[in-house]
Design a protein that fits this description.
alpha/beta; eight-stranded mixed beta barrel; 12 helices; 48% helix; binds ligand C2E; binds magnesium ion
């Protein structure tokens, strides 16, 4: 019976994993033509002011609108592109699409801060500042409205090049956020070496903030430290009212998470903006002021 069982388990397991492997190989083949097939799309997640709840920003998050499989999150395909030249083209497309959308919303009367995630390869690409400079000029945007999100691990890879790229972005007036803060070594010297303007406290801290006093104390401490360096602070991954109210008790500037809004298509995000317009006490502070 044990033998039968083993064989049974084996025969169930193999086709399933074979199917997954096949699916992954197929995705890998398809992902390189997804850009020219116009299958990539940006979703936008709202960021609100802790002070008054107004939507002050959007984080652009890449999605693959797959004809067979539906919407695919970057965790399933980004790494396939990461070490290939294709990531440069996809990254450039993300920058352009985010700028185009920021302009569209600006023309509707919403000057948002548009956050764009940068890949390690983009961060060491000396053409990135010029690409972005040309885009904001083309779309008539204020450079302060575009914020590049980088992670600590990206900064450690090629420190010299990354610093050069970030400094020229800073010279142009772009904002730079340190994403997932607290998950790496949180080597504080990076905050001195690189022109960071914002830190995004990772959702692993936010997760238990309402239950674990130490989590709250850490967040309060990190924020105090960030403020002393005149950095703006965003807390990401807020999923519950209890987490939101714990974070509102701190000096955090901007809130982001499923509670406030999941990443959504541009049309849905726009509906959110328009709904806000009918709430008079929530003035639009513009991108110069928060986060
Ligand atoms: P990230 O920049 O740290 O983005 C936050 C991720 O957390 C997003 O996942 C978002 O959907 C998710 N998230 C937001 N709020 C909550 C919440 O309340 N709870 C939970 N559980 N999750 C939340 P997503 O969209 O799957 O993106 C994953 C990562 O992929 C991003 O992490 C970013 O590093 C990368 N990424 C996304 N778009 C791009 C892009 O256009 N270019 C590059 N290079 N990387 C991107
Ligand atoms: Mg991010
Ligand atoms: Mg993050
Ligand atoms: Mg991340």
């Amino acid at each position: 019976a044990a033998k039968d069982n083993g064989r049974h388990t084996f025969s169930v397991f193999l086709p399933e994993s074979a199917r997954l492997i096949k699916e992954r190989l197929q995705l890998r083949q398809e992902v390189f033509s997804a850009l020219e097939r116009r299958q990539f799309v940006l979703f936008y997640q709202p960021q609100i002011s802790a002070a008054n709840g107004a939507v002050v920003g959007a984080e652009a998050l890449l999605r693959w609108d797959h004809p067979r499989l539906g919407v695919i999150a970057p965790g399933a395909f980004l790494s396939m592109l990461e070490d290939t030249p294709a990531i440069t083209a996809v990254g450039a497309w993300v920058c352009e699409e985010a700028c185009r959308q920021a302009r569209e919303w600006e023309l509707l009367g919403y000057q948002l801060q548009m956050a764009v995630n940068v890949s390690p390869r983009q961060l060491t690409d000396e053409n990135l500042p010029l690409l972005l400079k040309n885009l904001v000029a083309h779309y008539g945007l204020d450079t302060r409205c575009i914020k590049l999100e980088v992670t600590e691990s990206m900064l450690t890879q090629d420190i010299g090049k990354a610093a050069t790229v970030l400094r020229s972005l800073e010279d142009e007036g772009f904002r730079i956020a340190l994403d997932d803060f607290g998950t790496g070594y949180s080597n504080l010297s990076y905050l001195r070496q690189f022109p960071i303007t914002t830190i995004k406290i990772d959702r692993s801290f936010v997760e238990q903030i309402d239950e674990d006093q130490r989590c709250l104390d850490i967040v309060i401490g990190v924020i105090a430290f960030a403020k002393s360096l005149k950095l703006a602070v965003i807390c990401e991954g807020i999923e519950t009212e209890a987490q939101a109210s714990a974070i509102r008790s701190t000096e955090c500037d901007v809130l982001q998470g499923y509670l406030i809004g999941k990443p959504m298509r541009a049309g849905e995000f726009q509906a959110l903006l328009l709904a806000q317009r009918s709430t008079p006490q929530q003035a639009d502070p513009g991108c110069g002021q928060a986060g």
